[in-house]
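Schema walk-through. Below, the input block comes first and the output block second. Nothing else is stored per chain. Lengths vary across the set, and this one has 378 residues.
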Amino acid sequence: MKLLFVTGQKYLPQVHGGTQFSTHQLCRSLLHRGHEVAVLGGFMHGGLFAWKCKIQRRLLRRTVSRDTLIGYPVWRSWCPWNEVEYVAKKEKPDLIVVVSADTLRLGIAAKRTGIPIMLDFHDVNSEYPVGAFKILGENVRSVANSRFTADRCRTMYGINPTVIYPFIAKEKYRTETTKENVTFINPVKIKGRDVALEIARLCPDIPFSFVEAWPLSAQERQELIQKVSTLRNVTLLAVQKDMRKVYGKCKILLAPSAYDEAYGRVVTEAQMNGIPVVASMRGGLPEAVGPGGILLDPEGSVEHWVLAIRKLWDDSQYYAELSSAALDHASRLDITFEYQILAWEGAMLAAALPSAKIINRQSRKESSSLKNSWCKNG
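--- output ---
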């Protein structure tokens, strides 16, 4: 199949977020399976790469740039929803997969191409009116990155997505860890930055590593640097292309998000290394953490967070128990490559082809066989 993923978000290498990494690893996996993929996403100022994109657009006299820097075509535009028809004509996909955000606007633009579409929900914080997605068709197919996201889609939009957890290439994250610090990824306010800073302040003997992910404005970065500089036990790291360097020193992952995470990809990345997680009891985080960590109220007393961190840091037996549980949870069937790729191919074929029932039945048969085999051996 030829597939075009369209998103309102900026894309790699300009933004390193969970949605971007999940989509990228899915695209790479589909390429290895013999499919063709391309992405249309947003664009942002800053750096040599951005200037190259701007120069290309000016030379070609168009409002969208194209590059293959990460192994497949990526089209970039200030307003990707205005470019869907143009890019679709160039790429000629069998299916357009609309990835959060700006899902409805992009979906409407994709619908105008006459090419079958599928929605891929990674976000539950965009509020559309009830029934808004009916404009895309009564039976528009969709995928959600967690049961929490799928439940929210059913409640808010009357859509019933297939749940496929984020694609995480284990070889990109598995490593030996020296267990040197507590790691907090994406130190922005809605991810619980202030809670993490207060925990670090109350645990001066424990090293903390804060790792940037989302782009920060000059003001946001200056504010973060200022706050971190008052704490000798906190190290601030820039965006890391190889997260094994981060997890290679991590003993505990901290995820005190103040808003409803759709899933919590970094949780699974950490748990693949046997790293327990202390996280908010919000959104899809409980689903991601499972038995491999501790869940707390993000609006509760910070003392509870401190006690949880100290318990894991100081109690080796307790740590070993949660570490083992984290590894087990990160090995469950529905986040294995074999299970996920079959689920994606089945969903895409069903969305792309009116006659896909026969092909999709074979995909479901393979998936069922895999599940039965897993149950017998696991």
